[in-house]
User: What shape does this take?
Amino acid sequence: MSVAQARADGRLPLPRLVLLDLDGTLVDTVPDLATCVDAMLTELGRPPHGESKVREWVGNGIERLVKRALTDSQNGEPEAGIFDQALDRFMAFYARHTSERSRPYPGAENLLAFFEARKVPRVCITNKAARYTEALLSDLGWLSSFDLVLSGDSLRRKKPDPLPLLHAVRHFGVEPCQSLMVGDSKNDVAAARAAGIPIVCVSYGYNHGEDIGAAEPDIVIDSLDELTRLIA
Assistant: This one.
């Protein structure tokens, strides 16, 4: 069944490979990220931004998050000297507080179990650096839930480039059209489109405060449990 048919019928075929974004899709990591951003700013003698502001900035890797915090803008570029100081401080804080307040979204563990029970390989594809990805997955008890983990520094390029997605489908010998990407941002949509992979997006994730529907994923869902119902 094609995605177009799925839209009409209200159901999806079981993919041969599922690619899952992490932050904003499976796990709400903003509470820890915001704590570390504000601690970094405080050390630099700058006012903290708070969790709601940080929630709009997540999704393009730690370097861009730090730049946004320093400039209070999506695409600002701080001075190199202050950026290097800030990045070092943030990384030190985040290494100690990767998963203290981060929590899986409802349905996340059920979704992983759903695909595992059906022997569908599961790939975590995130722009988070590997040291933090592995720590978070370990603390959640999820390291064995994935057959492959691709972090932001695992390959030469990261999302929205399609390279991580194409690497995954080649690794498992699956055609892109037989796979499924699950994400929350326009970066996920751009990567999936460029790779020729159908994409389902959650409505609650991190997309810089924008409605993910505007990025035109194949399907938008309000919960991960909704995805298992669409497939089942």
Q: What stands out?
A: Residues 30-96 form a domain with the DNA polymerase; domain 1 fold (CATH 1.10.150.240). The chain has two domains: 3-28+102-231, 30-96.
